[in-house]
What does this fold into?
Amino acid sequence: MTGSGSIRVSPKPERVWALLAMLAGLLVVLVEIPAALASEGTYSFTHQSISHLGMTGCGDWVDTDDPEDVCSPAHPLVNAVSILSGSILAVIAFVWHDWIAPTVWGRCGSFLLAAGGMLLAATGMVPADIDLTLHAVFGFGGAVVQNLGLLAVGIAVLRWPEKRWIGPAEFGGLTLGLAAFGLAGTLLMSLPEGWNLPVGLIERTASYPFLAWFVLAGWMQLRDAARRRRELEAGA
It folds into this structure.
């Protein structure tokens, strides 16, 4: 089913994939709230790294010029959500590879998104206080891959409108906007630590667009599925 205001049916079961995409994307963000509330001391979403919520130990953490007291009793939940949600999003990205757009750009974008999901899962498997270097590689590499995936998907949706299978044309522009936002955050992540930038805000700028895209794509599928059902019932 195609057209300027419709979404082509994704692989069955359509509603299951859509709901899983929305839940997985939302969980990664929402789990930070109880984890931050459970943290011993004050956790700053602006100035502290997301990784602090997943650290397995407590004490002064020195990854900047100013040591920070880090203790996250909810770290098992945070890491489990990263592993589970990242794995789910990786599978969904593969499942959706032709639904996004049956072109080289579309499939490249889906594979990059899948790799981004796997790297998200890897950050939960290797907390920063277990292996900082590996965790940083997974985290920064994931941000790069995820946002390049969004960029490829946005190009695919806008460049081949006759093959556009993922919602109204505006969704392609929104996808490119999310990619640009995420890539800007990724670039800021690579700047020297001595600049004293708000690490937490920058990390979320780099990582949230990937999650937001899956939430939006899943919501659009559910909305379109409901509209098709109403049309079928009206025509019966």
User: Anything to note?
Assistant: Residues 7 and 153 are 15 Å apart (CA to CA). The first strand starts at residue 59 and ends at 61. The beta strands are 59-61, 68-70.
